[in-house]
Amino acid sequence: MKFIDFKKKKTSMHRKLLLYMLTLVLVVVMFIAFGLFFVGQFSTTTEKYSNNLTFQNEFYTRQIEKYFDDLSMMNEMLSNDASAIIDKYLKEKGIYISALNDSQLYTEGVQKALFPKLKEELLKADASGAFIMLNATVNTGKADSDKSKTGLYFQRSTLDRTDETLLLFRGSAELGRKNNVMPHRKWRLEFRTDFAPQTEPFFDETIVKEKKSVLTDIFTLNGTSEEAMAFITPLFGADGSYYGICGFEISKNYFKDFFAQPTRLEQLTCTFSKTAEDGKIDCDNIFWAGVLGDYSLKPGGTLVPKEMNDSLTEFLGEKTFVAAKNEITICNTSYTLVVMQPKSEFDKTVAVSVTRIVLVCFLLVFSAVVICVIFSQKFVSPVIKSLEKIRMQEHAGTKSDIIEIDDLLVYLTEQNRLRDLETENLKRQNEELAIVTENQTNEIDKRQTEIERLTYSRKNEIDPDNYEAFKIGLKELTKTEKTVFNLYLQGKTAKEIAYILNIRESTLKFHNHNILEKLGVSSRKQMLRYATLLKQETQSND
Length: 542
Description:
- With about 550 residues, the protein is α+β, with helices and mostly antiparallel strands.
- The protein folds into 4 domains: about 45-55 and about 260-350, no CATH class; about 75-250; about 400-440; about 460-540, Winged helix-like DNA-binding domain superfamily/Winged helix DNA-binding domain (Arc Repressor Mutant, subunit A), CATH 1.10.10.10.
- The chain is built from 12 helices and 17 strands.
């Protein structure tokens, strides 16, 4: 007997085990890495980024909606209070609003009456300016006098709510000085009805009664480079007389400073603009705000939207942005609110996440390799030693020091014993089956012999006409009926035939009835007799 030298195989076994372990570990790590990259971590990073932008957008949305709701309410209050003040003044003077035309006395008088109220409301409001524009002018003889209107216009130089921050943009300069409100560097005495978009229709007497509050488009203040929007509400007297308009100004700079928000998202920008049908954003006609106390990038040109997923939109233009957008309605007009970051920031966030994944995978693989090497050495060495010990001591009947090897030997011994028993049982069953088969064959031969003997001995008793009808009837049998007929000729019983054909005994009875009727016999015994006779005739002819 040739024994195996396990010591010579130790290196090979060690290498195989190490290879298997490393392959398994690397496959598992690879699946984990791909899962993290494509499904898990990468998706989570994008989702977190999307959630942050969406949250910031929702915050801006709530803030801006509340802002314009509050401003609308204050504008309505200013309209009511200013109308009441004008009513009172006109009543005291016994005049109508038209009497203000070409009258410096009356225009300064109504401005003086309105001055404290307008100042008070501006100091309370979150706005860069407030105005009251009356449907009258001090100089009707001037060219384009129909576009010139008297009134008051205050502006706030800072976000501070103090008298020192107020400037007089339109109205009586002397009145302003007396009330410690210095004229603006671009001061003018009167307004023009086109100072802001959507204001001229308020001075069209044919439709003014139907006018409601509006938020104007972005416009540039006359004589300045300052851009703003105006929230406008009409002024009506108690008797329904039209007095003019009042409202609040929101400049771009004020919007930017007021809505600047603290956030961890670098270079975050929030844009506010009218909703375009094609979804594009004209960056020349937007209000925007950024990060409080940090650098914010104002987008430029035209931004074209491109959907990224359910919550994020990519805007392509001079610079590409990743954004979350929302729509709000102000004065029955739809506005789009977009919170965006440069796509470079999004890519950087994703890149950092991917780098982390790669680093974790590398560390995981390195650790797995080291562990596999150490484990394989510690595992294979005692196995080789134990197998060598078993080889040397197997004739002495000693056991190894490894439980698993002992269990394996016991199992193999038991399997050999069971296999021998199974072989013996199978041999005995085959012998029994052979005996049964032989007995069945002998019984069939016996039956067939007896049938042939009886048929031959009683040949003279057979009616020739019935026999001829039998032979003709054989040709009329169906395929199934012929099969049943042949099985009867082979000596099969009814139960055996039903089992062979996998049919019920009732079905077999039906076939039996048809066979007997077609063959013109009264019983199976007669059928078998005729069939045997036919077979003998055929053999004798051959």
